[in-house]
Write a structure and sequence with these properties.
By secondary structure, the chain is of the alpha+beta class. The chain contains eleven helices and eight strands. A four-stranded antiparallel sheet has the order 6-7-5-8, covered by helices on one side. A two-stranded antiparallel ribbon has the order 1-2.
Amino acid sequence: MTQSINLTELQDLAKSGRTDKERALATELLRASRSGRINVTYARQVEGAGRWYAKGRVQLQSCPKNIRAVALKGIGFEIDLRASYPTILVGMAREMRRRTCAQIPTATVERYIMRPDELRQEVADDFNITTKKAKEGFNAIIFGQRLTSFKHKMQIAGNRNSETMYNFAKEMGRLSAAIVNDQGGRQCRSEAACRTLLSRTVEKEEEKLMRALRTALEQDGWKVGSLIHDAIIVEKKNEARERETLYTATQNVLERVSEENGWGGGILTFKITPT
């Protein structure tokens, strides 16, 4: 794939960046560019499925966010799936309900998907921590950490409890177990193996979503330049109301894919940010 970059901003950073690393990365991007574009190769860690990872140093997927922001300034838009991991779990649970009549509670997780700031504030108040720490807690539980471990790490008093976080952790545990079992995980030899199976299952679904989005947008004349896992960079068309047009196109694709997957509508949320 090829990605347009802002040569002027990168030249300024290469000369006056705050650190040697910033200046060096900016210089590497400039040296690799051809007519204001860089070529990036992507490969999967697991053959045939899962996320695409950019190879080499000259790419924008894994470089520091501040470098990426400079390189992409004014180039286009970032389309970012919100809370993609728990959203995909909930979507898969909805499909399982339809297929097997499984009873999998998801109310708190769905609240988090739709109103994350609200739930982070609730937990921050309950535990007397910052909303930033509360966000870390939600992320830790999403990726398998136990609530007791998070409280210990944050030095939260044992008598402090949060009904919101307790319900979220309980639902995430049941969601994860149900999906692992549905994917044949009863044969997992360890907890780590089950987590790997779950992660690869979610990554596979995420990649299918992003591929469908890329394909539809490119057919509509948009240029997709970079893959950032659960986000993509789309270059400007320089047309009137293009952000609104891009929003509508993205929403239509995600709703269609969600319905095709048996997840139902209204579950996939996203934001579009000018770069």
